[in-house]
Amino acid sequence: MGRSARFMAVLVGLLLLVSACLAESDDGGKRLCTCENDKGTCVNNTCRGDICFYMWVRGHEEKGCFSNHNYMEQCHTSFERFHVYCCRENLCNALATPRPNINGETTTVPPQQAHPELWITVALLLLFMVAGVCGLLLFLRFRRAHTCLKNVDDHNVTMLKVPNGDDPTYGGIFDEFCTSGSGTGLPYLVQRTMARQISLVECVGKGRYGEVWRGTWMGESVAVKIFSSRDEQSWFRETEIYNTVQLRHDNILGFIASDMTSKNSSTQLWLVTHFHEMGSLYDFLQYSSLEPESCLKMCLSMACGLVHLHTEIVSSQGKPAIAHRDLKSRNILVKRNGQCCIADLGLAVIHSQFNDFLDVGHNPRVGTKRYMAPEVLDESIRMDVFESYKQTDIWALGLVFWEISRRTIINGIVEEYRPPFFDLVPSDPSYEEMKKVVCVDQQRPRLHNRLHSHPIMSSIVKIMKECWFQNPPARLTALRVKKTLSKHDHDSDFSINKLKQDI
After folding, report:
1. Quick one: pLDDT band at residue 49, thresholds 50, 70, 90?
2. 446-457 in b/e burial notation, b at 16+ Cβ within 10 A?
3. Which of 50, 259, 326, 393 is catalytic?
4. Right CATH number for 185-274 from 3.40.190.10, 3.10.310.10, 3.10.20.30, 3.30.200.20?
5. What confidence tens digit (pLDDT) does each residue in 170-187 have?
6. Which end of the chain is less crowded, N or C, counting CB atoms within 10 A of the terminal residue's CB?
């Protein structure tokens, strides 16, 4: 018998052994696990999977099941404020508790489960090793054949991965790792290993929160927002909100993961998102000017993102309504297709009319003074009413529209970039200075005459003015802004198509 035949006989024997072992397990290998979480994956407080788990993070407990053996390397790990326990028997996670003395807190010992199927795991590991050797042999044989063909044919073809559109392969990455379909980031246990898989390439921004770096992960560029330790609350809040079910939207910055890592004997808080090389809208407007149609496209995309944030979705995996509270050009990113996406949700407010709760968070930071609505500056805002926070977002949206309109070319005229109220307050205005301009004098940003001579821009000017009403309930809603801009976008597309047909 040749070496290949003996090799295949051993492989077939291992496969039969593993199949027989798995056939003896109940329910085709799927365990019945206790399930307690808020992700909508539980059915009558149970779920079925390959592994049952219990997780304890900062006093928050979660139970459920996994159907992916890749999670095993993260099981039975514990360190400060984080503990994971996994087991492989029916309902074995029902009575699990955190390990003793996590972060100085006295706890009980999790029940130790027997593992009669340990030898099955060993057999599987052997099988994976054999499969890996087979794959290596096939690869070497393919490479030799490819080399021979290359020597025969002098045509040298180089394959290049050319970006096409926005976020070309992020979707594939999420399909590989995510099974819940909830529209959030990666599963929590996958997120816990992100920092070890990302290579930081260059720092692309700094702010009061910390730094933003461009990194690489699985061949793709990602943005890594590294929070300073004093801004821990913002990291917690943004992580909490980005994990909201059904938050994913084309005009909301795509969330990938959140991780806590140690660098140079200090703790770093990472937030990993999609990377947009064109940077923030603030940076983009410094060096770019727009045509009215491009201005409309940007404004409409922002309105779409804000509508999705402000809207509550009532379903089995519903989404609460969210108000941003710090909307400004620095917190809006420009995508390759000319649209924008809203970022930085560290100050956001969550509201669910269906579940009757309002969560304003515990972050002592407030928004940016230059973009604050009159009711925030004079402290007349109703803090217990969610609509109040949505109305402050609309005020800020109108100011961002004004920033874009200054950089829009009409009749060959375009203005330099300037922040809102640049001619009325200093570069870092105080509350008192902003309050005097906005509340007492009731000043608004000046609008250039050229804006009234173009139908698209005159409509955007009208929207701006209706976003700046002193009385908050009189302001437009995000949905009304979106519908008005959508009508102009449709009319613009119709005119362009008609012009092409005439030509």
Report:
1. confident
2. eebebbeebebb
3. 326
4. 3.30.200.20
5. 555 544 444 343 445 555
6. C
